[in-house]
Design goal:
The protein is an alpha/beta fold. It has helices spanning 2-17, 43-50, 55-65, 89-100, 131-149, 166-177, 180-185, 187-203, 208-225, 229-253, 267-279, 329-344, 358-371, 405-423, 429-449, 461-465, 472-489, 506-516, 518-528, 532-551, 559-582, and strands spanning 29-30, 39-41, 72-78, 82-87, 115-119, 153-157, 283-286, 289-292, 306-309, 312-315, 318-321, 348-354, 378-384, 387-388, 457-458. Helix 5 (131-149) links the parallel strand 5 and strand 6 (153-157). The longest helix is centred in the middle third of the chain and has 25 residues, at 229-253. The chain binds arginine. Arginine binds at residues 119, 122-124, 159, 161, 333, 336, 351, 353.
Length: 591
């Protein structure tokens, strides 16, 4: 990791020039424009500013003292006080050689491993998983994989919605309207039908009959909560049926969880949480409910316990006990943090949900800070935007239903099969289906990971399955090209112990330098929770590989040139495979 060496040397130099300076924020990053160098730092400007020094003069001094001649051919001052570093070709070649030997793959395990709990996917029982849940599943899985690859301790927990008022209605539906045959055929669809049926009847409160249903639902819920054997058995069965459907999807997506402690797991703790917050004066009774209100410590614009309605500031409390005595999502999440801290002592808890839950998490985190001001745990709400249809509205089926995840994955494989069949009609069907599975699922996952997660994106089959473009199939195909060169060369590049590398062509150098930045990008993904950085890195890598491959014959080359080029193919393939693996996407040897 050359940028690390430069960073260390730079910090050392700065400490000698400015002994009191905090150099921990001094970073060396890829230079945005390779015309000016390979790496760059902008740290001198901030250091100069806070000391009222002239940034260019500081840069001159640093340049005069700094010795990076082992790795760099040139150090230049640019603009208002940037330092640009140009790496020596021998340094690039040497790093490639150690990677080819298997010493590293351009990333390093974290110097200070952290423990992170990642809370993601978290679907709700008795409702089919829909496209919104795929985004949480795919993003959360990718972040977990990235953190793990970098040597952190990761605990994944699926916070399944297996508790709540919907169970009153489900029990009523189960007892009076259950269609056993439909349940056997497709449990989640039948459960969803029951839920919708009863809840729509409850909503039409005008008609007296519906008030009766509402009361029934409420009393079934109370019975369930007080441990009534029949209702508990129905609830368990509903969870079991849902869980097996979720599991089928997870196994298709290759996603595993260390834990799936659903909301119900925290029931026994909820009373204690409410009591503790009341005792500490953090929560107060208000109109029969128990709520957390603003403590006035934040500017009103940033205060999650205040909102503006009709131009006026209003209290926007976090309700932890409802006036009917029920606990809710908020209470459960407070108990969940407490449990996680006691059980795993994490440095960080990451929640992956859609953007509509921002207020909930802001209130949750603020309440927790008041409850445990001593805690150093980092709490991150990693939120994402919606998936839209061609019409710019939430992605729906033709008949206007939300798209079920299982159907979406089926369609992805089906469409990929058509593409594969057009390209390779001669392949046996089983092989075509396997390719279609890997390509179709990869394409859907990549479509979720590529956009900036906070923006909405338009779902388009044509776009995500395109072989030319920033797509999973394009990257998977690039990987197969690297493999096919190595196969045709008849050597596995890894087999050659003494690897010598000499980079001469510009395309070789560009590709090689891009490989060097893999670890830097992985770290940025883990730091900012943004898998799109990795998608774009891999897309650029595939582009550099393509240009290299078009301009630099590999199999017809000889001697050192041939060895160098084969090594470039091999390392590009390994980085593509590892990178796609972190995104949760499989690769094939042939497509
Ligand atoms: N079940 C929730 C939903 O589908 C997501 C839960 C997220 N995790 C949490 N700890 N609140 O919207």
């Amino acid at each position: 990791m050359i940028h690390r060496f430069i960073e260390e040397r730079l910090r050392f130099t700065l400490t000698s020039l400015l002994p009191e300076a905090d150099t921990s924020a001094v970073l060396v990053r890829p230079c945005p424009d390779p015309k000016f160098g390979d790496y760059q730092t902008n740290a001198l400007m901030a250091l100069a500013k806070s000391r009222k020094l002239n940034p260019r003069q500081l840069a001159e001094k640093v340049k005069a003292t700094l010795d990076v001649s082992e790795w760099c051919a040139a150090v230049d001052i640019a603009g208002a006080g940037f330092l640009n570093f140009r790496v020596k070709p021998e340094t690039v070649a040497a790093t490639l050689a150690t990677a080819a030997r298997g010493d590293h793959l351009f990333y390093q395990p974290a110097a200070h491993p952290r423990t992170a709990v990642v809370d993601f996917s978290s679907p709700n029982v008795a409702k089919p998983m829909h496209v919104g849940h795929i985004r949480s599943t795919v993003l959360g899985d990718c972040l977990s994989r990235t953190l793990r690859l970098l040597g952190h301790r990761v605990i994944t927990d699926n916070h399944i919605g297996d508790w709540g008022t919907q169970f009153g209605m489900l029990v009523v539906g189960w007892k009076s309207e259950l269609d056993q045959a439909a349940l056997d055929a497709d449990p989640l669809t039948e459960l969803e039908r029951l839920y919708k049926l009863i809840s729509s009847r409850c909503d039409e409160a005008k008609i007296e009959f519906n008030a009766v249903i509402r009361d029934r639902a409420r009393s079934e819920l109370v019975k369930l909560q007080s441990g009534d054997a029949e209702n508990v058995a129905i609830w368990r069965e509903i969870i079991r049926l849902s869980q097996s459907q979720f599991d089928a999807i997870y196994s298709r997506l290759g996603v595993k969880f260390d834990h799936a402690l659903g909301e119900s797991f925290y029931n026994p703790r909820l009373n204690t949480v409410v009591q503790a917050l009341r005792d500490l004066g953090i929560a107060q009774e208000s109109g029969g409910a128990v709520c957390v209100f603003s403590d006035g410590t934040k500017p009103s614009k940033e205060d999650p316990f205040l909102s503006t309605r009709d131009g006026e500031l209003q209290p926007n409390p976090f309700v932890i006990l409802k006036s009917d005595g029920g606990f809710n999502y908020a209470t459960t999440d407070l108990a969940t943090i407490a449990h996680r801290l006691e059980t795993w002592t994490p440095d960080e808890i990451i929640y992956v949900t859609d953007g509509r839950q921002q207020l909930h998490f802001n209130q949750l985190f603020a309440t927790f800070r008041r409850w445990h001001p001593e805690s150093k745990v980092k709490l991150a709400h990693v939120w994402f935007g919606s998936i839209l249809g061609d019409d710019g509205r939430p992605f729906k089926t033709r008949s206007g239903e939300t798209v079920k995840l299982a159907d979406l994955l089926d369609e992805a494989e089906e469409r990929a099969l058509q593409v594969v069949t057009e390209k390779n009609p001669e392949l046996p069907e089983a092989e075509r289906r396997e390719i279609a599975r890997v390509v179709g699922l990869g394409a859907v996952k990549y479509a979720d990971l590529l956009p900036n997660r906070q923006s909405d994106y338009v779902f388009s089959w044509e776009k995500l399955l395109a072989l030319n473009g920033n797509t999973a199939p394009y990257l998977q195909y690039a990987y197969t090209r690297t493999r096919s060169v190595l196969r045709r060369a008849g050597v596995s590049a890894e087999a050659e112990n003494e690897i010598s590398i000499f980079l001469s062509a510009a395309e070789e150098m560009t590709l090689a330098k891009h490989l060097l930045n893999f670890g830097l990008v992985l770290e940025a993904v883990a730091e900012e929770y943004r898998p799109n950085f990795l998608c774009n890195y891999l897309y650029e890598l595939a582009g550099h590989f393509s240009r290299f491959y078009e301009n630099c014959p590999v199999l017809k080359a000889e001697g050192l040139e041939r060895a160098t080029r084969l090594t470039l193919c091999d390392l590009t393939g390994r980085v593509l495979k590892q990178g796609l693996n972190v995104l949760g996407i499989e690769t094939l040897e042939q497509m």
